[in-house]
Amino acid sequence: MSKVSIVIPVYYNADTLIPLYHDMKAKILDKLDYELVFVDDGSGDDSWNIMNQIKEMDSNVVLVKLSRNFGEHAALLAGLSTSTGDCAVTKQADLQEDSEIILEMYERWKNGYKVVLAVREKRDEGFVKKFFARLYYMLIRSYVNKQMPLQGCDCYLLDRQVIGVLEMLDERNSSLTLQVLWTGFKSDNVYIHRRNREIGKSRWTLKKKLRLVMDSLMSFSEVPIRIMSGVGLLFFIIACVLAVLVVLEYFLLGTPMIGWTSLMCVALLSFGIMMLAMGVLGEYIWRTLDASRNRPPFLIDEIRK
User: Fold this and answer.
1) What does the alpha-carbon distance between residue 233 and residue 231 come to, in Å, rounded to a whole number?
2) What's the rounded mean pLDDT across residues 73-90?
């Protein structure tokens, strides 16, 4: 039987880790040759101690402790790099997805698929969250990668060959899901029901969500620069047309060229557009600098096997 690694990033999940392990133990672990890889992404709670308790209960558990919080992207990469299975499944620690979906993903992998996405078919969340999540995935499908499921996906199974490609990419300020889709390997979808979180508090803040949008667009698409170029061209055309109209009105109708307030509005608007364009370019330049420094995406403080 092929070995499956289950990679679980942990960030302030002390209250969900034991229930998560018992849930997987009851539903799937006895049916697999498995390896559980827990990655502590700089949690400030008791997560590491809880992970060690699970390690004492199960010899198939591997613990990875990062030196600080590097983000879920880096934590997943660290777990995938440490894993030894023929394939690896990423799983959230918040108990919002059914563990049994891993068995279905594993069966799809045995049928020859090297990437299996767990797509959200239903999600028990409020209208606002659903709306903005759908908007994000529509943007990604329109401007970055048409293979992104419209409902989105949090978990996926990766063949060892795909994991090797991700390790070779070694990208920062990026989206791991989009990197997986970028590889282009034979893929399939399974569908899950994402439930509301009943234990603990989500650390997926608005700031992190906005950062994901920026990383997704700027790491995989030239759309932000194209948009700023289009806005600049539009305002240039408008300025030329207005200038011609003002000159014609002056010579044909004798209307004096006055209006300090309107000129200031136009000047401030133009200045704001220029600063926004410089900010977009600055983001790309900063990302180039960050990549050129060749810093590792994560630092492992300790591994327990």
Assistant:
1) 5
2) 92
284-to-88, 172, 288, 295 alpha-carbon distances in Å: 32, 13, 6, 17
Tell me the pTM.
Answer: 0.78
Mean pLDDT confidence for 2-21: 92
Domain 3-221+296-304, CATH: 3.90.550.10
The single-letter DSSP state of residue 8 is E
Dihedral (CA of 287, 289, 294, 296) sign: negative
Amino acid sitting at position 119: V
* DSSP label at residue 13: -
| Burial tier of 134 (Cβ tally within 10 Å: 0-12, 13-18, 19+) | middle
What per-residue confidence (pLDDT) applies to 76? 92
- Cβ atoms 110, 40 nearer than 8 A: no
Q: Amino acid letter at 253?
A: L
Domain residue ranges in the chain: 3-221+296-304, 223-292
What is the maximal distance between C-alpha atoms in the chain?
90
